[in-house]
Amino acid sequence: MDNRPIGFFDSGLGGLTCIPYLMKALPDERMIYFGDTARTPYGSKAASTIRSFSMEIADFLVRSDVKMIVIACNTVSATCLELLRNRFPQIPILGIIDPAARKAAQSCDSRNNIGIIGTKVTINSGTYKSLISSYNDRLNIYETACPAFVPLIEEGIIDNEIMDLTIKYYMDDFVYGNKLDTVILGCTHYPLIKKNIERIYPDLDIINPSSIVVSKIRQVLEERNMLAENSEFSNIFYASDLSENFVNMIDHIFENESADARVKFKNFDLENGERHI
């Protein structure tokens, strides 16, 4: 048993899409979440900048005594996973890409046309395509970057015509030109527009890594005898810029269940180390 919290982090609020699945599958677990909302988006930044930001956040989570770190960000998972594992060998660190890649490789065959949408950094890294092919080299895989999705989602521009037009701008030619039947949401922000994508492309089978990673979390905790029991810890959601939109988005994601989750919101300045409740 280990009642310490699990640490999650993302470039912004996208990684929050993992949390409801964790709470449903492992209700005794508690978490510390860090969203780097002041410096989002990461997906168009230099890899060296992403590595620097990620090291700062991981340092903070380790100092907060988390028992595991989940990189709830595809961009960071694609660029920093091994770096962070080497820096913190004493703590399990999970990326979000590998579990989804395994899922796609196991559930699809050569008859499928699989599309991956993500940030520029994630797509340019080729991590998804490489991992999926390593598990099943008979698959047809296509990739495209959708850089405007994250800024719009961070601003709460989701259920309106602007988002639908942006989705069609990036995805119409990609979906129809490659005759896609399966799409992987290669950014944890994208589940927030999953309903939009399903409505616009009703024949697509959508793979959501935010839900799939929870099985890997459970597996690692069970193997290490680290599952929580009756934890008294309160879930804490940190943001480097604790905006009203961040809090509102948590309510949107949890569908107003967050009141039952013993949630605290805090702003944390990584540079100055000051906390503001």
Name the descriptors.
about 280 residues; alpha/beta; 7-stranded mixed beta sheet; 4-stranded parallel beta sheet
Description:
- The chain is of the alpha/beta class and 277 residues long.
- Helix content is 43%, strand content 19%.
- It has eleven helices and eleven strands.
- The protein has helices spanning 19-25, 47-63, 74-87, 97-107, 120-125, 127-135, 149-154, 161-177, 194-200, 209-223, 244-254, and strands at 6-10, 31-35, 68-71, 93-95, 113-118, 140-145, 182-186, 205-207, 235-239, 263-269, 274-276.
- The strands form two sheets. Strands 4-3-1-2-9-10-11 form a seven-stranded mixed beta sheet, with helices on both faces.
- Helix 1 (19-25) packs across helix 10 and helix 2 packs across helix 3 (74-87).
- The protein is globular and about 50 Å long.
How would you summarize what this structure contains?
The protein is α/β, with parallel strands linked by helices. It contains eleven helices and eleven strands. Helix content is 43%, strand content 19%.
Give the fraction of residues assigned to helices.
40-55%
Shape, per Cα inertia axes: globular
Spatial sequence of strands, sheet with the most strands: 4-3-1-2-9-10-11
Count the beta strands: 11
Describe the secondary structure blueprint for this structure.
Elements: E1 6-10, H1 19-25, E2 31-35, H2 47-63, E3 68-71, H3 74-87, E4 93-95, H4 97-107, E5 113-118, H5 120-125, H6 127-135, E6 140-145, H7 149-154, H8 161-177, E7 182-186, H9 194-200, E8 205-207, H10 209-223, E9 235-239, H11 244-254, E10 263-269, E11 274-276
Parallel strand pairs: 1-2, 1-3, 2-9, 3-4, 5-6, 5-7, 7-8, 9-10
Antiparallel strand pairs: 10-11
